[in-house]
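Re-running the complex after MR caught last week's input typo. The corrected sequence lines follow. Everything else is unchanged.
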Amino acid sequence: MPAGRAATSQDERQVAITNPDKVLFPETGFTKGDVVAYYRAIAPIILPHIADRPITLIRYPDGVEKEFFYAKRCPPSHPTWMPTLRVPTESDRPLDYCIVNEEAALAYVANLAGIELHVMLYRRHAITTPTLVVFDLDPGEGMSLVDCCAIGLELRQILKQLGLECFPKSSGKKGLHLYIPLNTPGITFEDTKSFAHAMAELMEEQFPDRVTSLMRKTLRKGKIFIDWSQNDDHKTTVAPYSLRAQAHPMVSMPLTWREVSTAAKSGEASGLLFDAPTALKRVKKRGDLFAEVLTLEQSLPKLGAD
Amino acid sequence: MPRAIWSGAISFGLVNIPVEVFPAIRDTAIHFHQLHKTDMGRVKYKKVCSLDGQELGSDDIVRGYETGRDEYVIVEDEELTKLDPARSETIEIHDFVDLSSIDPIYFDRPYYLVPERNGAKAYHLLRKAMEEAGKIAIASFIMRQRGYLVAIRPLESALLLETLHFSPQVVTIEELGGLGAGADVASKELKLAQQLIGSLTGAFEPERYHNEYEEKVRSLVESKTNGEEVTTDAPVVRQKQKVLDLKAALEQSLKAAAEGRKSAKALPAKTTQAVTATKKPAAKSATVKSAAVAKKTATKTATKKPVAGKPAAKKTATKSAAKAKR
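Corrected-run output:
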């Protein structure tokens, strides 16, 4: 891409790409132009997962080794064709979030050095309805992605016994995310959050030496923290196929359970790690392993007397 | 026991009374740390240049006094050090005045004076004499390279040192730009107001008043530290109870599932459950197409969601159920 300003267009949409040669990942020389190119290439696959969801960008204007900030508010200068959603916040000032529904919008947020895309668990036409339950398995000190895989497999088995399918993705850092697709109207965040919380406590009870459901970092040492608290109407989770601000441009990549179980058995997690180029190759070959997350309709089990 | 922050001597005339200075006020405010929401990392501040975004160390930073828009005179550390008052060992009493002649607006921070070594006798003599004369002392002293104007007054069995504001610091009433008309009041109304004041008059008892907000914050923090959940907020309690109930129900339901499976295994596998499970195709590669399949089978196999999954569930279920019992 030429230096200075370049444009990307989709239909009539024009997005100026500024400083495409600016290196955002110094260790690999991956530039802002590369980030934009990655998101444009992955657009057909990622867009269904982020469409209509308020998005928080983690912006690294000077690269992943420098200052970053969580950009919730859509910049006032956003293109007029890009929708926003006004979301009430815990304080009294509502925020207008960007809605990224098309390739040009992806290019726009990528050009803001929005390396990481984190989205809400609801879509804008039903803001009280989470479309999925997410478990974020986060390894404490001394634990690794392989340990997350082992716990993820256990969690999957319990969910299966409750009649629920779930889908794994790498966080792109050290963790593993499990998504339970719901795609069912009427489910509330109170339902999903208490369900996830109860599941995390159940896991903690069954694997007391390996799992904690408590956020406190001191309690996480040598354990996998099952973060249930992201199932909340004002919390976001890193989108599948989003880049992560690591030394390398890693991707939060949907996985098969076979891959997860191979990693758990072999103790080798390298097969679960994908950077931008390998992610694009994989998607070309295998399509969207998270397609069912968009379509599978499931309800949380009816348990006891409510 | 608090720590002394200064030691020296009260000096007036030819008398020197060795004393130490102790803070008379403690900080009871609850302090919080800022943490990164997602990983509980402590939040640090970085000094960054507003022009080039470069992070700065202390060697990169100078003091500037703004003289105009974007105009500064630079003042070096050494230049300021030269102005530091020489360290003095004395609290120099200048005058004795009536306590009522100092308006409380001038009082800043109180400290206790505590006699040192063989100063006790002179200390108590000064205190007693001031008490009986109804006078307080105006003095000056230097602490941590700053000169202070202070008042020294007896308080019960001790001497109190109060730092005073210098007069330019005190905002005058004239600067407020008027307090509205009505300064001349009718005597009848005045009498009524005085009666009201009289009926509410009592002694000031500071123990009677509580910093309720701070006490609430403190008990919130304490209950959280002890691992109890917070009890001031009804929705939180409800949520916690719901999670507990839900967990119990989950355990119940998993147990039932495990037992059902055991008895199904004891009988030759003929239950309809097992049949439907083995009949389903192994939908493995999850492309858009297989997603549609999964959705269809899901709604077909049972009228009520949720729906048992694919064959894999059957095979491994007993294994993890056994584990679950440990």
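None of the earlier attempt is carried over here. The mean pLDDT of chain A is 90. The helical segments of chain A are 32-50, 103-111, 145-161, 189-206, 257-266, 276-286, 291-295.
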